[in-house]
């Protein structure tokens, strides 16, 4: 089976969409599927003016014709220029497709451009309106989109590599104070300042890069910003930390939470969609509170590192990939459907 994934975000960008698609694609290939990824590096591109780390491909529908025509299944992962171009070609040639909703674009565009959310939701609803299934990561996100009129919603969970991300108790350093870390993009929408201004007797570290890093480094010179980390180095930082602070109020999931839990590190967050879906009411693996400091206190005093690891072991990428595969639909109409389409009434 030939599967085509279309995404407007790809390496070297670091975000949940890229991680999800890379892990999903790798597992599908290991199972024998032929996976093609259409991404911005295949075309001329420009940087988004208000978010220079993000690239926007310059292309049109027919430039995607060859990989789309070859595919048995097509999935549109993003709603950007590539997603729109692929959607246009697929509809023109009466090809079925699935899509997914990863990013809270209404919240982001409101923050950056003051674009009212109802306009963004209306545009996104139009994009997904012809999708056979719109895949979402959590129940709360499905509920929210259903309220905005989205249809054909289906669940596609997220996973974690529990071989890479694992406890490393033997290498945990002895510290005079607990270590609290933030991992992710350093951008306005991530609400990192809530973490940096926490009034708690902990050492803090920011792991990641992004457009707000230079500003925050100037304002908080006593806090180390170590940049983006990957693989074993990132896993080691998770394992050394005593708590992961997840201050975002807009993430639709937050894969970093699962990565931290797999390393035995509890999560402190706000009680908003994303953390609520991941952590639930399991107080052994983390805490959520409108007072983020209280959530940190609970993690340091009551969370159990063993329980964190056990929870993460239930969320494998293989399980998520099987779920994704079950939702895909044939792109090429069957002979029977084609004959019905061309049949003339007597």
Give the key terms:
346 residues; alpha/beta; Rossmann fold; 6-stranded parallel β-sheet; globular
Explained architecture:
The chain has helices at 16-30, 65-70, 81-92, 105-113, 117-128, 139-147, 193-196, 213-219, 231-240, 255-262, 275-279, 292-302, 305-312, 317-327, 335-342; strands spanning 2-6, 34-38, 45-48, 51-57, 73-76, 98-100, 134-136, 153-155, 179-183, 203-207, 243-246, 267-269, 286-288. The protein starts with a strand and ends with a helix. Helix 10 links the parallel strand 11 (243-246) and strand 12. By secondary structure, the chain is of the alpha/beta class. The chain folds into 2 domains: 2-159 and 319-342, 3-Layer(aba) Sandwich (Rossmann fold); 169-315, Glycogen Phosphorylase B (Rossmann fold, 3-Layer(aba) Sandwich). Helix content is 39%, strand content 16%. The chain contains 15 helices and 13 strands.
């Amino acid at each position: 089976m030939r599967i085509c994934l279309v995404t407007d975000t790809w390496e070297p960008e670091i975000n949940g969409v890229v991680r999800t698609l890379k892990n999903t694609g790798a597992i599908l290939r290991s199972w024998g599927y032929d996976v093609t990824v259409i991404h911005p590096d295949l075309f001329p591109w420009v940087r988004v003016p208000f978010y220079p780390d993000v690239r926007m491909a310059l292309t049109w529908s027919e430039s995607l014709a060859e990989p789309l025509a070859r595919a048995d299944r097509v999935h549109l992962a993003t709603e950007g220029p590539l997603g729109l171009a692929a959607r246009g070609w697929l509809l023109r040639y009466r090809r079925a497709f699935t899509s997914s909703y990863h990013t809270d674009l209404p919240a982001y565009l409101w923050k950056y451009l003051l674009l009212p959310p109802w306009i963004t939701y209306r545009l996104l609803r139009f994009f997904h309106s012809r999708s056979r299934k719109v895949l979402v990561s959590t129940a709360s996100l499905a509920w929210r989109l259903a309220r905005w009129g989205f249809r054909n919603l289906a669940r596609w969970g997220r996973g974690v590599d529990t071989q890479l991300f694992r406890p490393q108790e033997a290498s945990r350093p002895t510290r005079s104070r607990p270590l609290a870390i933030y991992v992710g993009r350093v951008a306005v929408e991530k609400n990192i300042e809530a973490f940096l201004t926490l009034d708690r007797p902990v050492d803090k570290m920011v792991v990641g890069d992004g457009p707000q890093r230079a500003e925050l480094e100037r304002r908080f010179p006593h806090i180390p910003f170590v940049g983006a980390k990957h693989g074993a180095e990132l896993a080691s930082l998770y394992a050394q930390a005593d708590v992961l602070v997840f201050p975002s109020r807009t993430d639709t999931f937050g894969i970093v939470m699962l990565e931290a839990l797999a390393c035995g590190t509890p999560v402190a967050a706000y009680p908003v969609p994303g953390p609520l879906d991941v952590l639930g009411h399991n107080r052994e693996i983390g805490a959520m509170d409108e007072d983020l400091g209280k959530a940190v206190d609970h993690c340091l005093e009551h969370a159990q590192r063993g329980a964190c690891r056990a929870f993460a072991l239930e969320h494998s990428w293989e399980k998520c990939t099987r779920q994704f595969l079950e939702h895909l639909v044939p792109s090429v109409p069957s002979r029977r459907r084609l004959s019905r389409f061309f049949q003339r009434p007597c």
